[in-house]
Specification:
alpha+beta, 5-stranded antiparallel β-sheet, 5-stranded mixed β-sheet
Amino acid sequence: MSKTIVSIALWALGGWLLGAWLGAATGWAVFALGLLIMVLVSGLQLSRIARWVHHIDEPPPPSIGPWDEILAPIYRKLKQNRLDLKERNRNFQRALLAAEALPDGALTLAPDKSLLWCNQTAASHLGLDLSRDRGHSILNIIRTPEFARYAHQDHWDKPLTLHLGRGLHMRTLLLHMTPYAVGQFLMVTRDITQIERLESTRKDFVANVSHEMRTPLTVLSGFIETLLDLPDDAIPLDQRRRYLHLMEQQAHNMQALVSDLLTLSALESSPNGQGEPVVLAPLIRTALTQAQAISKDRHLFDVQISDTLAIIGQASELASAISNLLTNAVRYTPAGGTIRVRWALLPDGQASYQVADTGIGIDYALIPRLTERFFRVDRGRSRASGGTGLGLAITKHVALRHQASLDIDSTPGEGSTFTIRFPASRVCDASAAPPQSKQAAQAL
């Protein structure tokens, strides 16, 4: 504005001087011409400013007269605002990425409990699709009475444990809602399915161990009380020996149970190791000798074993798995039945240890539970033969530690087939086994 006033004053001064020299008309003409020039220049400057307005991110045009003082601070402010906005956008994106990386689910809800945003974890927990569910009430998405009661509370001191799905697909979530911002809500979800299953497994384990120990302890305490309460001459020697023999059997059962529990605990707690090449043929033959001793010539054994096939692993663990499958086959196969044992290389490079029997068989619905701890198809037969209910659980863990699979195929009344398939990466030739490993295998 000051530049404009100075320009007008200069043109007026020039017009007055020329008017005093050449006449008043000339002075007024010069002054009018000056004003006209100033109007034309201002129009040109305004047109340049108008073009700049359409590209406001660029610097303002140079040499626009008095508009320089006006547009320069405006442009600096706009530039600073753009920088601030970019920084805020970067911070917002960082916050979103951090929210997406959270192991817990996070949802933001409007005052009416409609979904505003959720991270991928929450979408996975609740089956949400943000593009589809945004703007819909969370009460219409999670349709359970307990959640509806929880969401309608005025405050949330405790989280809600919510069970979604059924059967094997059931998921347990811990939900916690809290207000934030102005009338909005934040809901955090945590998947505790595995924790709940582990807790249930722990409770079942304690209950099963207590149940398994109760029977032999009851027998032992009963016989001990009988022997202590009665005079020595009140019990015949044969009957006393029979009591002692039964007590020995129960003590042996408890010892076997404790041994299997320790083995299973060691398998679960120790890290997976590659081990060394182990020749399985001696391990299988040792287990066969033990199984035949239990069988007492009541079964026919059909054996085909490769002597040139070895597995990279732990000999003691493999021996346990091999023995468990053979022992189970003897226990659950009636007298006169056949037990077939195969150890061979498969066409795809894998190695297969297979035990098939013509025993009582297993119902298809029970097969997934066979590797559970203490699960028995026939409890009476297992206890009578000294089984602890942990053999297949141990075998499964041994297979997993060797990257192998335990496959079970069974038909009630016809028999069962148990197969451990070792991956090709674990298979090697018996010549690769060190001499000390072969000697240890033979000793086992």
